[in-house]
Write a structure and sequence with these properties.
Distance between the termini: 36 Å
Strand content: 15-25%
């Protein structure tokens, strides 16, 4: 059980204890409840370390005293995994928010676990790259939480899992031992790949504090379409055709049913461009990754690029091939329409919670 002596010891273990240690019940309250507001704990102390070494010292003391802990990132999960069940100490990563640099030779970013995903996106944008994961909670979720839950996100089909994109990782075990596997070499087949054990472990094996992540290039252009169909079987057929026709240009494909659509519409007041009369909806994104435009073979035949956007042409070729499966469809004409379509998909969880 947590004692006054324990709190005093924690204050000695961290720099700036006035920032790192939270004891006020009002300030602790947000750390005690999950994002959907259904699971509530009774945590009496929140510790916000600023370095891997501080995490190590805190966990070492907790292990010695047998004090239960719960690691917490942005607390955006929907299953209560990041909040205490009873009176566990919360170790929040929100002060470990430094980005250590981007290596454009191998396209790898080194970042603390407490960096907010959207902040990492903004950091990488000037380099022309982006994180391999994107979520509706990008404005508050932490990259460490993305790793701990092996978040797939909306671009999983194109960019794969966090397992596939994590090159290096640093974590602290329950007894305070620091596991440093922060290698930034992509082609490394030496020894055990221990970092993979922590990705998806949800804090049960240790606390992730730092990572080196492989970043894909930002597409030069994207085309987003929303399609409507009558059955889930049609949804799967559209997926197969999209992969076949769009190939490497397919950057995202998501579906939702009318129940989800109606909740987003009625609760969040987000309007679906296709309305709410259809049983299933398929959101498809096709992106251009800057491949060279083919050169025309003669003066009489214009180059392919002059005939219009090649990715857009592929998208309409997809529509032609699935015309018997879709009952309605729309292609976003500008960024506001693109955002409107994506907001329908991203707002589903929030709509059901409210």
């Amino acid at each position: 059980k947590l004692t006054v002596q324990d709190v005093s010891e924690f204050k000695n273990l961290v720099e700036n204890p006035e920032l790192a240690i939270i004891e006020s019940e009002d300030e602790i309250a947000p750390y005690n409840v999950d994002w959907i507001g259904k699971i509530k704990g009774d945590c009496k102390l929140v510790i916000r370390p600023s370095s891997t070494e501080e995490v190590s010292k805190v966990l070492k003391h907790c292990n010695h005293r047998q004090i239960a802990v719960v690691p917490q990132g942005g607390n955006t999960g929907l299953v209560g995994g990041s909040v205490p069940i009873k009176d566990e100490i919360v170790i929040s990563m929100n002060r470990m928010n430094r980005i250590h640099g981007f290596d454009n030779t191998y396209n790898i970013v080194r970042t603390d676990a407490g960096v907010i995903l959207e902040n990492l996106m903004e950091y990488l944008k000037p380099f022309g790259y982006m994180p391999p994961v994107d979520l509706g909670a990008r404005g508050s979720c932490h990259i460490g939480g993305n790793l701990a839950t092996n978040a797939g996100g909306m671009k999983f089909l194109k960019y794969n899992s966090m397992h596939a994109n994590t090159i290096g990782l640093k974590a602290v075990l329950a007894d305070g031992t620091i596991l440093d596997d922060m290698k930034c070499l992509r082609k490394d087949n030496t020894g055990y790949d221990l970092k993979q054990l922590f990705i998806g472990s949800e804090g049960t094996l240790g606390i992730i504090t730092e990572a080196a992540i492989l970043c894909p290039k930002i597409p030069s252009d994207s085309n987003v379409a929303l399609l409507a169909c009558n059955s889930f079987e049609d949804v799967t057929k559209i997926l197969v055709k999209a992969k076949e026709i769009l190939g490497t240009n397919l950057s995202a494909i998501e579906y939702f049913d009318n129940a989800c659509n109606r909740v987003v519409s009625s609760v969040l007041k987000i309007t679906n461009p296709l309305g709410d009369d259809h049983r299933f909806y398929v959101l498809t994104e096709a992106s251009d990754y800057g491949l060279p435009t083919p050169v025309a073979s003669s003066d009489d035949q214009p180059a392919s690029g002059e005939q219009g956007n090649l990715v857009e042409e592929k998208l309409f070729a997809l529509f032609d091939s699935i015309s018997d499966l879709i009952v309605d469809g729309v292609v976003a004409q500008d960024s506001s329409q693109t955002n409107a379509i994506w907001k329908t998909r991203e707002g589903i969880a929030e709509g059901f919670v409210k």
